[in-house]
Amino acid sequence: MIPRYSRPEMTALWDPEAKFRIWFEIEAHACDAMAELGIIPKDAAQAIWDKGAFEVARIDEIERETKHDVIAFLTNVAEHVGEPARFLHQGMTSSDVLDTCLAVQLTRATDILLADLDRLLEALKKRAYEFKHTVCLGRSHGIHAEPVTFGLKLANHYAAFARNRARLEQARQEIATCAISGAVGTFANIDPYVEEYVAEKLGLQPEPVSTQVIPRDRHAAFFATLGVIASSMENLAVEVRHLQRTEVREAEEYFSPGQKGSSAMPHKRNPVLTENLTGLARMVRSAVAPAMENVALWHERDISHSSVERMIGPDATITLDFALNRLAGVVEQLLVYPDNMQRNLDQLGGLVYSQRVLLGLTQAGLSREDAYAVVQRNAMKVWEEQRDFLELLKADPEVTIAEKDLEALFDPAYHTKHVDTVFRRVFGED
Amino acid sequence: MIPRYSRPEMTALWDPEAKFRIWFEIEAHACDAMAELGIIPKDAAQAIWDKGAFEVARIDEIERETKHDVIAFLTNVAEHVGEPARFLHQGMTSSDVLDTCLAVQLTRATDILLADLDRLLEALKKRAYEFKHTVCLGRSHGIHAEPVTFGLKLANHYAAFARNRARLEQARQEIATCAISGAVGTFANIDPYVEEYVAEKLGLQPEPVSTQVIPRDRHAAFFATLGVIASSMENLAVEVRHLQRTEVREAEEYFSPGQKGSSAMPHKRNPVLTENLTGLARMVRSAVAPAMENVALWHERDISHSSVERMIGPDATITLDFALNRLAGVVEQLLVYPDNMQRNLDQLGGLVYSQRVLLGLTQAGLSREDAYAVVQRNAMKVWEEQRDFLELLKADPEVTIAEKDLEALFDPAYHTKHVDTVFRRVFGED
Amino acid sequence: MIPRYSRPEMTALWDPEAKFRIWFEIEAHACDAMAELGIIPKDAAQAIWDKGAFEVARIDEIERETKHDVIAFLTNVAEHVGEPARFLHQGMTSSDVLDTCLAVQLTRATDILLADLDRLLEALKKRAYEFKHTVCLGRSHGIHAEPVTFGLKLANHYAAFARNRARLEQARQEIATCAISGAVGTFANIDPYVEEYVAEKLGLQPEPVSTQVIPRDRHAAFFATLGVIASSMENLAVEVRHLQRTEVREAEEYFSPGQKGSSAMPHKRNPVLTENLTGLARMVRSAVAPAMENVALWHERDISHSSVERMIGPDATITLDFALNRLAGVVEQLLVYPDNMQRNLDQLGGLVYSQRVLLGLTQAGLSREDAYAVVQRNAMKVWEEQRDFLELLKADPEVTIAEKDLEALFDPAYHTKHVDTVFRRVFGED
Amino acid sequence: MIPRYSRPEMTALWDPEAKFRIWFEIEAHACDAMAELGIIPKDAAQAIWDKGAFEVARIDEIERETKHDVIAFLTNVAEHVGEPARFLHQGMTSSDVLDTCLAVQLTRATDILLADLDRLLEALKKRAYEFKHTVCLGRSHGIHAEPVTFGLKLANHYAAFARNRARLEQARQEIATCAISGAVGTFANIDPYVEEYVAEKLGLQPEPVSTQVIPRDRHAAFFATLGVIASSMENLAVEVRHLQRTEVREAEEYFSPGQKGSSAMPHKRNPVLTENLTGLARMVRSAVAPAMENVALWHERDISHSSVERMIGPDATITLDFALNRLAGVVEQLLVYPDNMQRNLDQLGGLVYSQRVLLGLTQAGLSREDAYAVVQRNAMKVWEEQRDFLELLKADPEVTIAEKDLEALFDPAYHTKHVDTVFRRVFGED
């Protein structure tokens, strides 16, 4: 995480202050549960809530001696709570606190990411309807193919992010579990009820079976999902970068007054936001492999996952949060140039209708192979000699379609007739 | 994919023969739908089913000229079908065939993988119940922690693979879509009904919106799921490898008569299957990054994903299929040594009960910090001087627990009292 | 590896036949060394060379019982050699054979890859000189920047591949070592001289210290190098794809007579080779992570690396070999369109000279900030209103440069004056 | 980067203050070179050195408007320098500053890492000699194999890190280049002499040919090297973790007074440092994939690499620096238990001599196959019935070696006789 690519709401989630507050709540809720079970005095549980406090700096100081962060935290809290503090953490192990805390942090982070996706989805939908019928080039292999509409392009990305939203909700369930099962997960010194109680208070599910830790396949699945979302983000970013290429210029990132595109070349207007997003996507994805390597912990746990998660937990969520908002902003403010879309569409003199001519010829009785040869032969002349496709076809004796019928084949409306159908599929029946 | 690590059923799925058969069915079903719509003659559609055939070698031969595999295939089929072949593939684009075929292959591959997981789950459950109450060491950081049961260990892995099964079903839905939407996904030359018809025939869902291709975030999510499963597989494999370490030897891979562990050292019995699975897990995971890089195709598509999928499609599914079966076999035949479990449990003279002593002391009125210091001080003597933990405690004047009560704390049953609860959570109410 | 993306010379290297032949030579050379030391009879060593043979199918058959490939091989060889076979493999361990064999395979594969790079370098150099002075657009962020020459573009890629060649030679040294040190690397049962002897015969260096295996950091460094080369390959492939975009069309992959670009759209000429190379680059890179995970073997070795290397050894080298040759072919046959380069250069009416105007204004006394503002203000009008940049500048009262001097700033030759210098740096003083 | 896993010296390298200082020096040196060429006044160049200054907060403030960091920096410097500031950055492009600065940062970071490796190498060498002849188990597959010495184990890791040191020096050369070639690398507005001059002042080499940026294959190779080093680090960390396992306990991380191993179990002494290093290794490796994806920038550059490098530049070097020092500390303070090594060596009653018995039998005339069968048959009884291997052999009629000769085969010294040879190979002739 670096400040340049972070937003305060998400960053705050990962502050030491926030983390220790969650730790405190886990411990205090657990005491309540134990008091309810009659294992510890109700007064003690209440005293913990009343007097419980901590200071980040003091915890750091204690940890330098004990080399154990949870013990340092408990010692600091005990300094405030006094005698009843001895009931804290009874029968629990550090991982009960750490893993449940991570679950809380990741679910909260996910809630922010879900809101980010909602903002992005709304922007995509709005712009998709805005350009629902704006004809532009469809390209495959970077080569002009056939007409589509700009709204369709955006609908595609909308659908991808709608899928990503569903995946992220799934991923949220993956990591929203609470484990308070003691040293090696046997509940030897703690009643399973405590786990259920704390889980409920924190909006989590009890982990059905834990070792010393919550199993890391959950986290691997979570970070893999972030990697998939990042990849969709890259896909949309690359689309914008392509559309903004000087020769294409069908769309452009908003360029604010006062902005400078280059220190050397004052004429520059660069798609720097989407290029940046392309890089950020690589970074979010880079969390996937370590998260997967974290799964194979030794026996009931080793702590190799911990340093990884201290990094990728904040890094991947903060970066993705920043990036999704940047991307939403790009979509919301995207400058779209329908005139240029039309200019590009016309660039090759109707070559984009080659398939329709091909089909016309087969319907007129030619074999597919022969029709293909006729159309390709004429098309190649357009590429090589900048000739007009329609004129070439008219002049070709093997083209057995009447001129008027031929001209009718060069019609963009033919290609956009199912836009409504697709929009209904994507956005529902509105 | 290499034969050494593959099973015939899965490999067959990816044969050229199987692939072209799926292509044929897609094309023929599409013709049926078009005939139903009155776009092509019913006779033609029937003729395609009746006379349609292909030869892999002939397709390869034609492709060498056309440099386009779908065209080569269609040409070869036309050689068999004759005149009605001109109705084949009308309004479709190659990707309609290729992507829908990949969806069929991946869903079939997934069905095999689901069956593999079922075999593994059954084996884990059976062995978990077999050793439900077999006490053994729980270890954290590779260091003796507290008693668990071997059944609990297996229940943990069962739960992980049950989650993996659910993830894989989810992943199956991700990739079970059919796109027959023409050149750039506009249905310009093909009615959306054809897509719906073919989808239904092949057990797929119509892709709500496609470009020229089915969006690759679906495949990224799919291969990421395989990567998570592979990681859980590594986790179990590493557990077996640890248990088989000579000094531990609590369990061992089955060693068949005639097997040789080493060309040089005849005494060797090595956990080669689980070591192999550890490596195979790395390979399955290696498909995740390229699958994610595949998402950001240019505009309506480029073909960079194709070579990747030609490799990771078969490689990841074949390898995982082989590996899951190997793993199931390891679990089914695992040699388990309860006597060694007990020996290891006793190795440190009761040190594994240190927490219970700690809690006993706090219940007897010591502060948590003081109690910790007392227990730790005695425990360190066990590590450093191989002394007996219980005797040391009895001799320590700060240990304010009666001898008899102290002895009672050294009881494995205390640690296993919630095994039933956990089993109910994992396996349900049986 | 799949046949579609492989060349016979490289594939042959990885055949079982070739592998067993190397195994045989290692064993036979080792016997020679032992005979020289008087440890085994010279007759025996000679008999092994004379009668030694093997059959792949028979080895497979034996392995099914022993589950150990080296033992199966030795047993099969013994069937041919008879009594003297008992001197084979004395004091050696399987890994001595396997790891030394892998070293031979990887060095041979590297020699092919080095030749591939030479072909590519030659093609790049030839085309670089061909277009040394062909002016074209330099672009940053996909936006027109300033003029370069097409030869300079190619010189950049030449330099990258020259670096890659040097890296690959370094990587070859990394893996060109021989270990014949016995069970756990102690030479307990084999004299270090045998290792030195065999190493020399096979063109390898003795491994200074091995465990049971050659240390895998060597292989990690090797595959990482292939990953870097693949990334440079992707870089050049992406350049070609961009240049071939319809709106750009400054260069194009060779399109052979009879080739079909699309089954649906006969007009298509797609950069399918470089798109394919983009995908293959992802695959070569996918070997890096597993190769790095292979380094941390347990104690003196575990066999988790083996399955990984059985796959990535052939896959990464075969794929890279195929890809480098495909890339060389693309460069050799690349269609280059200088007219289109000029057309694109002119597209923005001289905007690409904005920096020179900026510098002209600062030399004429404006502060950099003021000059920037003046130039940017005019440039934005070109973007937004398609005005002519030079005319705008002439009309701007704040532009304090005489018209004639202003016109002189719009000169491509100014930008290409150091092409000779750069070529000398890259290609040397020829 | 997180403070927990960072050291101040390395972190300081990446401070904004340090970065802008390098920017300033690049600009000021460039002015000196231009003054020398007579392009700008010598007074101006001197004034820049004399009055040049910047404030991080002010730069941030300006950047919020310009959205361009180099322009913001130059504006801030101009506020201090006054009029002569207009000569700053003439003919240069932002990347000239950014990329050259990154080269300086990475080379300085590398110098720290080289010193880290030296500390680690020294520790490994010292401890290797300390335990040069301390016999311990060699293990393959986690199973007892044959005796080695603990010094040999350490010598292996020494050799790996010596290779890593050489690789890192190579990697340093990869990234130690300076590009001051202007907008798209043509030197249109800047003389190549400036590049040469600045390069020399900063201890870099001029980049032979750059686009707008230094080619990213250099950085990919650099980060790949860090990934290889991290993998070797993981290898040594995993070795320590294995040796510290309770059942093995041949070595142990230093456990300081006051340290607490577990909040719940006071008896714990866990290998937390090496587990932590295992996780950190995963993080350093995670930089490799994005660094490789950074290579394929579009045309003369896009800025997608920038966000990646802002993160992995500091993260990977800071983490590796921290980790190498932690690892050196682990080695320096490692507690080694030769008595436990001997105990483990004796655990299987001499089974580790099985190969020597095998060879003894073949020398006594048995075929290798028959000898193997005899030894294996007896060895299996040791595993299964805990019998004594030597006694079993003595009692076996097929063992045709005299008892006394048999006993002589059970000799650890036989296995350590080449330790001196290996040490000479690894550490040289001292």
Unreliable spans of chain A are none
Number of strands of chain A: 6
Largest sheet of chain A: 2 strands, antiparallel
CATH topology of the largest domain in chain A: Fumarase C, Chain A, domain 2
Tell me the name of the CATH homologous superfamily of the largest domain in chain A. Fumarase/aspartase (Central domain)
Estimated share of beta-strand residues of chain A: under 5%
Shape of chain A: elongated
Helix content of chain A: 55-70%
Average pLDDT confidence of chain A is: 95
Catalytic activity (chains A, B, C, D): (2S)-2-[5-amino-1-(5-phospho-beta-D-ribosyl)imidazole-4-carboxamido]succinate = 5-amino-1-(5-phospho-beta-D-ribosyl)imidazole-4-carboxamide + fumarate; N(6)-(1,2-dicarboxyethyl)-AMP = fumarate + AMP
InterPro entries (chains A, B, C, D): AdenyloSucc_lyase_C (IPR019468), Fumarase/histidase_N (IPR024083), Fumarate_lyase_CS (IPR020557), Fumarate_lyase_fam (IPR000362), Fumarate_lyase_N (IPR022761), L-Aspartase-like (IPR008948), Pur_lyase (IPR004769)
EC number (chains A, B, C, D): 4.3.2.2
Keywords (chains A, B, C, D): Lyase, Purine biosynthesis
